[in-house]
Amino acid sequence: MSTAMYHVKPLHGTTHVQDLPTCMYHMKNQSGPDVVNKGTSHFASPVSELVKRQECIIEKLEALQSRISSLTSAASQHHESKADLKDSRDINCFKDVVIACSPTLHPRAILNLLTKLATRHSILLTYYVHSSATSKPCHDLSRNGFEMNLVGSCRTDKWMVITWIWKECNECEMIVSPVRQTKIVGEVNICRYLTRLLGEYPESPVAATVLDQWLDNASIIARGSNTKQNEALSKLAQRLSMSRYIAGNTAGIEDLVNFSAVSNSGLSDKWKNNKHIKQWCTLMS
Q1: What is the pLDDT of residues 7-26, one digit of tens each?
Q2: CATH second-level architecture of 205-284?
Q3: Residue 174's beta-bridge partner residues?
Q4: Which among 238, 234, 214, 237 is positioned nearest to 226, based on CA atoms?
C-alpha cells in the first residue's frame, strides 16, 4: 500500500541546491562603515582614559605604600636602638643607692640579697648611724661586708655604691636615684627591686604571679592588722605543711621576705606552737 497521497516530480535537478534567505527584511545601512568605526572609537576613548587614570592611581598608591613601609622600618629601628641604649645605660651606668632603716629592725631579706649581689659585682658597701637614731643598731652590718665611714675611697670604679643609714623611720627606704629622688618604701618592695637586679625574678607569668602573692603576704604580716596578720600566717602554715619551704624543697626569695617579716613583727613567738612554722623558722635562722 502507498504511504503518500500525491507524488510530485522535482522541478529542478537533484544536484541543484536552493539557497534559502536568512533574513526576513533587508535594510540599507544609513551611516556607512566609516561612521560606525568613528562611533566605536568615540565610545572606546573614555574607557581607555579611565584605565590609564586607574593605573596611574595604583602606581601612586604603591609608591606611597613603599614610602610608609620604609618610614615605619626606620622608626622601628630607631626606637629599638634608643631602647637598647636606654637599657645599656640603665645597666652599665654608675649606681649610688642609699638605704635607710630603723635601728630596731633587722631586714634579713635585704641584707641576704645585697650579699649575693656583692659576690657578682664590684660593690662598695658602707654604713653610717644618723643623729636621729635613738638606739643602737640591732645588727652588725660588718658581718655582711659593710664598712663604716669610708671617706676618700674610690667610688666611680665600682658597679654600685650602697650606703646604709641607720635612722628613725617607720619602714625601710631605698633611694635609687639621688637626682630624681626615686624612693622605694618597704622591705618587700626593696627585695623586688634587688631580685630583678640580680636577674632572678621569674620570667614565667605564672611563677612571677605566685611569687608576688607570697611577697604581698609578707607585707600583710609586716604591716597588716591583727586579723589580716593571723590570716596571712595561717596561709603560711598551710603552705609549710605541704613543703619544707614556701618555694618548695629549697628556700627562695619568698622564704627570705616572709621570715624577715615574721621575725621583725614578733609573731614568731605567738605562732611557735605551730610545728610547721617553728620548723621553718629554725631552718631559716
Answers
A1: 777 666 555 566 777 777 77
A2: Up-down Bundle (1.20)
A3: 99, 184
A4: 234
CB 258 within 8 A of CB 267: no
Backbone angles phi, psi at 231, to 5 degrees: -65, -40
Cβ-contact 126, 146 below 8 angstroms: yes
pTM more than 0.85: no
HEC string of 154-206 equals CCCCCCEEEEEEECCCCCCEEEEECCCCEEEECHHHHHHHHHHHHCCCCCCHH
Domain ranges of the chain: 43-72, 93-187, 205-284
What are the beta bridge partners of residue 124?
Answer: 161
d(C-alpha 62, C-alpha 204), whole Å: 43
Nearest to 175 by CA among 101, 87, 90: 101
pLDDT of residue 12: 62
Helix (H, G, I), strand (E, B) or coil at 68: helix
Task: For residue 88, give the C-alpha cell.
Answer: 645599656
Q: Which residues does residue 147 pair with via DSSP β-bridges, in sequence order? A: 126
The CATH class given to the 93-187 domain equals: mainly alpha
Q: Could you tell me if 168 and 134 are in contact, meaning their C-beta atoms sit under 8 angstroms apart? A: yes
